[in-house]
Every structure is written in C-alpha cells, then in structure tokens.
Design goal:
Chain A is α+β, with helices and mostly antiparallel strands. Chain A is built from three helices and nine strands; from the N terminus they run ββββββαβββαα. Classes of the chains: A alpha+beta, B alpha/beta.
Chain lengths: 182, 408
C-alpha cells in the first residue's frame, strides 16, 4: 500500500462540505450496479498529503466494508426525497458521519437504507468526482504551482469556490422504505 | 437472496491426474518452449490475468503482460513461482512487465494494482507501459493508483481506444474497446463504467513475414499464419460490444459480398473471432449475448467468477446459456445439452465433484498454428497461492456430432 507518514497529512475537506477537525466520517461510494442491486462500499475518510493528493493512510484502501441494496429502494429512500434528479449511478459518493450496522465484509443485502446510515448523509459526488479528476490529471502531466497559473484562471476559480462555499451541503434525509417493499 | 446454481461441479474424470515433478504444466512448457502462456487467476468475482510472453527473439527472455489485478498478493506469488521454475527473471527486473492494463477502475479489477506497483515499480523500469481507459472514478483504489503513477514518470501511459495496436515481438495486442465514440462520453458520465473497459484481442504469433536466405542474399517473404487469438473481454457490456461490432464489422454481409470477400482476403479472419474468449463481466446477464458469442465462436470460453451463489449471481444463467447455445444449438431441435467441459466452458470458481477447488486456469498456446490450446486447472482457492506443480490438464473431450453441427 502507499505509505504516507501520518504527520504529513490533514483530513480532506470537500469544498461543499467543510468538516471540523477530528471528525470520523465514512467515505461511501456507489461502486457498481448489477441488475437490480447497487453495491455500496465504505472506507475511512481520506486525508490530504503535502502535495494536495487524497490518500488513505496505512493501506486503508483494503479496509472497506460493503453492502448491497435494491437500486429502486436506494432511489426511493435517498434520491427522491432529497430531489436528487439523477438515478443512482456508479461513482456517486457520500459523507456519512454515523454508519449503521448493516455493513459487512461480504456485501450482504439490506432491505432498508437505514441499516446503513443511522444519521445524516451528505451527497459529496461533485467534490469526489472533482478530486478524482484532479488526481487523474496530476498523474498525466505537470502540476504547476498557483503562481504559474494565469491570473484570470485563478480569479475565476476563487469566484467558483466562494459561490460553492456560500451554499454548503445540507444533510440528506432518508425516508422509510415503501410499505410492502420487504 | 437465493441464487440458482448454474454451474455444476467439474468431474474429476475431466482432468488428468497431477503429473510427476515438476508437474504437467511445467512439463508441457518444457516440451513447447516457445508457447505463449495465459493465466486467468481464481480471485472469486474479479479479474487478474497474466500473459507470459514467448521468449523474445533477441534475448530469449520471457516478459509479461498483466491485465487487471483484483486483489493483493496472489499475482506476485504466481510471479515468484514462475521465477522459481526458471520461466521468468526475478520479479521486478527492469523491463519485465512490458504492459500493465487496468481495464477499468472497479475495485474487483484494480484493487491489487497498488500492491503490484509497491512491489515492483521503481526507477529501474520494471513496468514499461500502463494502459487505462481514462475513466475517472472516486474510489481509494483509483486515487492510490493515480498517486503511484504521478510519482512514476518512467511508466509510459496510454489511454487506448478501439484499433490501438501494440506488437511485442511475437505477440500483438489490439484494443477492441472502448470505441472513440464511448471515450468521448466519459467526462459527462454518459457511459457506464463497465462499458469503459479496455477489451483486448491477443494474436499469437503475430508475425506475418519471414526471412529466407537464398544464395548470396536474403529475401523477405509474407507468411500469413493461422495464429491463435485470445479475446479478453474485461467487464464490457452491451454498449461496448455494440460499438465493437460497428468498428470491427462482420465479414459475411450478404448485402456486400464483394467487400466481405476482400476484407477476408486482407485480414484472414473475422475481426472478432477468437480461439479463447475470457467472457466479459464474470458472465453477468448484461455482459454477453448469443449473437456476440456466435460471432466470436471461441472453442474455449472462460469465466472469472465464483461458480454461482455470489451476491450478484455470477455467472448468470442467461450468459451461461448463451455461451452454451453458441457452442451447441439445442433450443431449436431440443438436442440434449452437452456438459460445460465438452463445450469448452470453464469457470475459475468451480469446484471439482470431490469438493476441492478446480482453481485458476492456465492456457498454453503453441506457436505452431495446428496445435490445440492446452488448458490446465491449478486447484487453488481464491485466497490461496498457486502451486504450479499441482496443475492438472483439462482432458480434451471430442465434440459430438450434435455440437459439431451447431458450429456457427
């Protein structure tokens, strides 16, 4: 695993979801859709190393648990009530402060999303995808420092960040599964 | 959830006994030292594949192509075993891995690549090229892989699309997918991650010419050979295969017989036909269909999955039936179905009827076009290392009259 000295990292703070130091959120990704099932994987929260890269310290990439849920149920309990206008898709990512006990090492299916998320859930898909895209491009070519980037680009980026910071993410609510869905 | 069992146990009688030391696989390699070796490693529902290239024509060293590494540990252990058997140089040797392919960034395909890079990557240049489709995915495996690549400028990176070709001495790799059309939709997530998969056609031998000394000079002659072809389907699903059939058209089109004839003369075979097909997406019901299987028409079809009963029901009844029907058409005439072993269909996660794992699959592909591909089962469970000496050869079961008649 990629060895990163713990003292050189800080917890990742998505632009849309500023997090306090010392939080214990989980990082959850919709990994795969197979037929009617969605596979969710849960990892420890990532850190950011001295170069600005997301890292999972100490080999925690393999330290994941998973769960499967009917994709329609996921949509009904999480996406629809929060007006997420897309269908669940691979790569959707969530910050979860209080994971529940339904996670396992062998991808057990749950019949109620509340078996996975005991408290609030935050949709960090945009931030997560952006971070992955930045990681991808950093691996492909040069990573210039800010002073070497055009002033106009920096100004535009600062404006975008201000706008996003003014609209922080609200916690998503999870509804009960429809009657008879079990 | 109860999942029907769609794959039966492998009869002990369909495998030869374990051979005397050094084992039947290593003995077969010694008998055919120029063969290409292909390993489909038993990692449960996931992919880890290794091509041990034939000895290089310049220095007689066997080098490697790695296609996906689902989990840490098992592939490196296999490399250690191959080195101990004298087949490859010490793992990590400069230039040893000519190509590392991450077909797409799902955990069950790249979950072990960081481990592989931690072991063998370095400025000495063990890994020459790295191919990935260019699909961005926000998981730790993806981030760790990108971090490793960012600090490995000696690895050449490529995002191949359909038609990209790489020839490594005797072996040619051609990307059949993703198509350019799919690639250009990645950034908007208009393509599912499975359909971003790099699908590969492997040709061996790829050489189409030879040098012939005649008196005081040497002439170069064309030598079209009926080489063997391996199609590695990654997790490609309908969208990807549909694009592949556009980019690599069928050659027997009744509406343009002249074009079809000329194409066949030019390339020799249907673009998609293969001798061995690693069925895509662990034989999920969305990975393949009958039409694709008929066009590929591979006498050997391999599936990398548990043998039914997993969370997703891999391999799926529909996919397995398509693979079977393509080998032996029974649904029209009601002919009794032959066994998977007779039809050349093998699943990494299958158990023997004695209850032990049939295990990883090794294929030995001879350079001589007329010799059949030889298959071996290695008897390992998903989390146990491969013992090359434990290999048992898959006995060739002659097709019946019914299955011969069904050949497309």
């Amino acid at each position: 695993m990629t060895a990163v000295p713990p003292d050189s990292v800080v917890g990742w703070a998505p632009v849309d979801l500023p997090l306090p130091a010392g939080h214990q959120h989980s990082y959850v990704v919709l990994e795969e859709l197979v037929g009617r099932l969605a596979l969710l994987r849960r990892w420890p929260w990532p850190a950011v190393d001295q170069y600005g890269r997301l890292v999972w310290i100490g080999g925690s990439e393999q330290d994941c648990s998973a769960a499967a849920i009917d994709v329609d149920l996921l949509r009904t309990q999480l996406y629809v009530p929060n007006r997420l206008r897309r269908r669940p898709r691979c790569g959707d990512a969530f910050a979860v402060p209080d994971p529940a006990g339904g996670w396992s090492s062998d991808e057990q299916e749950v019949t109620d999303l509340r078996e996975l998320f005991a408290g609030p859930v935050y949709d960090i898909s945009a931030d997560a995808r952006e971070a992955a895209k930045l990681a991808y491009h950093a691996g492909l070519g040069a990573v210039p420092t800010a002073e070497k980037v055009d002033e106009q680009v920096r100004a535009k980026q600062a404006e975008t960040l201000r706008a996003r910071a003014a609209r922080p993410l609200r916690p998503l609510r999870i509804t009960a599964p429809p009657r008879g869905s079990r | 959830m109860t999942v029907p069992q769609v794959v039966g146990p492998v009869p002990e009688a369909s495998l030869a006994p374990v051979g005397p030391a050094p084992g039947s696989l290593l003995a077969a390699i010694a008998d055919d030292p120029d063969a290409l070796l292909y390993f489909l490693i038993n990692v449960g529902d996931g992919d880890a594949q290794l091509l041990v290239l034939p000895p290089d024509s310049n220095d007689r060293v066997r080098r490697l192509v790695v296609v996906d590494v689902a989990a840490p540990g098992k592939l490196p252990a296999l490399l250690d075993a191959l080195h101990a058997a004298g087949l490859i140089e010490a793992p990590g040797t400069a230039g040893q891995i000519r190509l590392l392919v991450a077909t797409h960034p799902h955990f069950d395909h790249i979950g072990g690549i960081s481990d592989l890079l931690d072991r063998y990557n370095g400025p000495s240049g063990c890994i020459d090229q790295f191919w990935e489709p260019g699909y961005i995915f926000p998981t730790p495996s993806f981030h760790n892989l990108m971090v490793a690549l960012e600090s490995s400028p000696w690895i050449r990176r490529l995002q191949p699309t359909a038609g990209t070709r790489l020839t490594l001495d005797w072996v040619r790799l051609t990307a059949l997918g993703p198509s350019v059309g799919l690639r250009n939709r990645f950034d908007t997530y208009g393509v599912g991650i499975n359909d971003s998969s790099i699908t590969l056609m492997i040709d061996y031998p790829a050489t189409q010419m030879f040098a012939q000394p005649t008196g005081d000079r040497t002439d170069r002659r064309p030598a079209p050979q009926p080489g063997r072809r391996l199609l590695l389907g990654a997790d490609a699903q309908f969208t990807s295969w549909a694009q592949a059939t556009v980019d690599f058209p069928a050659l027997q089109q009744s509406h343009n017989a002249t074009l079809a004839k000329e194409l066949r003369t030019a390339i020799g075979k249907d673009y998609l036909s293969a001798d061995l097909f690693k069925i895509s997406h662990h034989a999920s019901k969305h990975g393949i269909n009958l039409e694709l299987m008929e066009r590929v028409a591979a006498p050997i079809a391999l599936v990398s999955s548990v043998a039914g009963g997993g969370r997703y029901g891999f391999p799926h009844q529909l996919a397995m039936d398509a693979a079977r029907e393509a080998r032996q058409a029974t649904t029209t005439k009601g002919t009794p179905r032959e066994t998977d072993q007779q039809l050349g269909i093998h699943v990494t996660g299958s158990d023997l009827d004695s209850g032990t794992p049939a295990g990883s699959i090794a294929a030995l592909i001879s350079r001589a076009g007329g010799r059949p591909i030889r298959l071996f089962r290695l008897g390992d469970a998903p989390r146990t290392p491969i013992d090359l000496a434990a290999a048992r050869e898959v006995l060739v079961v002659k097709p019946t009259k019914a299955s011969r008649a069904a050949k497309p």
